[in-house]
Design a protein that fits this description.
Elements (H helix, E strand, L loop, with lengths): L1 E5 L8 H14 L8 E6 L3 E6 L4 H12 L7 E5 L18 H12 L7 E2 L5 H16 L2 H11 L4 H8 L3 H11 L1 H14 L4
Parallel strand pairs: 4-5
Antiparallel strand pairs: 1-3, 1-4, 2-3
Helix pairs in contact: 1-2, 4-8, 5-7, 6-7
Amino acid sequence: MLILDVSNSTKAPPEIYNHLSHIERKLRDLNSDENKLYMNYRMGEELFILSSQPHYTILLAFYAKSLWPASDFPLKCSFHTVDDSYPEYNPDRWDHPSIKAVRESLQTIKKSKVQDFSSPDMPKGIEIALMYATDIFRTVTPLQQEVMQYYLTGITQKEIAKLTKRSVSTISKHVHASRVKQLTEIIDYVSEQYELN
C-alpha cells in the first residue's frame, strides 16, 4: 500500500488538487492484468493506493515524486507491503491493521524538512537513500524535472534535446544539475533491497 499526502495542504492553492489528480491518472495508466492497482482519496487530500505486486508501491512513490511540481508543498509518501492477498472484493472495504501503521509512519514525516518517504520498520540504509532522493526531488527546477522524467524512461540526451527543443549541451548540463544519475542509483539500490525487477 501507499499513501500520498500533500504537506501543508491547508495553505496550498486549489491547483494542488489538479496536480494530485494528474498523478492519479498517470498511476492508473500503470494498471495491468499482472499488477492490479486500486486508488481512492481518503482523509481529504490523501491518495490511498493498493498494489497486488509486493514492494511495487515504493516505485510508484518515486514516479509520483518525479511528477510532483509543487516544491513549496511537498508530496509525502508512506509505503508498506504486507503478507496478505490483494482484496478480490471492493478494496474500499479492505481494512487491514497495517493501514494504521502506514498512516502513523506518514505522520512522523509530515513536517520533516529532510524526508518525504516513510515506511513502518524501514531499514536504515533505505531511509538514508530516501533522504538523499528527497533532497534531489526538492531542489530540481521545472526544466530539470522535465529532463529527469525523460531520462528515467531511458531515452538519450539527444532525444531529450529534441523533445524539449534545447541543445544537447544544455540537456547534458540539466542531467548533471538534476542529479538524475544519482537518483537512478538510489532507485536501483532500493529495487535491489526490495528484490524488485
